[in-house]
Amino acid sequence: MNDVPAAMEAEDLETLKWATQHLEHPSLAMRLSSVLGTPIEIAVKLLPRPVYKRANAMAHTAISKSLKTAVSTLRHDERPNPHNQYYRVLAAGSGAVGGLFGIYGLPVELGVSTTIMLRSIAEIARSQGEHIHDPETQVACLEVFALGGETESDDAADTGYYGIRLALAWPVTHATHYIARHGLSGQGAPVLASLVSAIGSRFGVSVTQKMAAMAVPLIGAAGAATVNLLFMQHFQEMARGHFVVRRLERKYGKEPVQAAYEEICGKRREL
Question: What is the pLDDT of residue 3?
Fold first, then answer.
């Protein structure tokens, strides 16, 4: 296994190292803590219990309603560079408007910002050689929302990138087959509901952190715009890492890439 990375082109290996760093060490909580001036975990604990419980429900709703809208008008061109900055501006604008209404405007704002994020994620997928109208790619776009969100029932094996992919394997496979046959119109189908539930429970962790940040007194429109910008940057990084790994898996095979990925993780833990 030690010479697995050596079989990979130097540029690809460096790209995989970048992906490993970001996928295994997501920084959303740290970024939000920096904006708030206090650990985001403290802000989450201060959320009223009814609001806290709504996070997962809002996450599920946002995901289930966003995918078809996000990809329906995106053309499969020849790998253009994704317009990351453009979507960051849109997300910041959405956050600023939502910030005028505080945490009570979040259900509507989250639907808008999730659609914007999915559109950006789809562009990133396309830039890494994915066909955005392929059901497998569409489901892979949704998978991005599960990255960087650790649920209470997770153990160490579930929280790493490949652990999350393994945990989602059953709903991902069945949802892909369903979309291939029926498209995205039957969003209430049990297999799609199962996928949304599995991803939404992890996305809900990030949504809870966003809610906590938005609930801070006097954060206002400017602060809400910043929170949304950080939210967008986080998922753009998760998307790039995810689709870099998938591109390398298509090039070298899944097992060699996973072995190289895990060796990179092992070397980092030894430092």
Answer: 46
3-state helix, strand and coil shares in percent for the chain, rounded to the nearest 5 = 80, 0, 20
3-state secondary structure of 128: coil
32: buried, middle or exposed (CB in 10 Å: 19+, 13-18, 0-12)? buried
**Rounded Cα gap, residues 79 and 108, in angstroms:** 32
Measured between alpha carbons, how far is residue 79 from residues 131, 234, 265 in Å?
10, 22, 29
Cα–Cα distance, 83 to 106 (Å, whole number): 25
DSSP state of 248: H
**Residue 163 belongs to what domain range?**
5-270
Spell 38-74 as b/e; 16+ CB within 10 A means b.
eebeebbeebeeebbebbbebbbbbbbebbeebbeee
Phi then psi for residue 150, to 5 deg, are -100, 120
Can you tell me the distance from the alpha carbon of 138 to that of 176, in angstroms, rounded to the nearest whole number? Answer: 8
120 close to 46: Cβ distance less than 8 angstroms: no
- pTM of this structure: 0.86
| Per-residue model confidence as pLDDT tens digits over 240-251 | 999 999 999 999
Tokens of 19: 């992906």
The model's confidence at residue 156, banded by pLDDT at 50, 70 and 90, is very low
**DSSP at 81:** P
Count of domains observed in the chain: 1
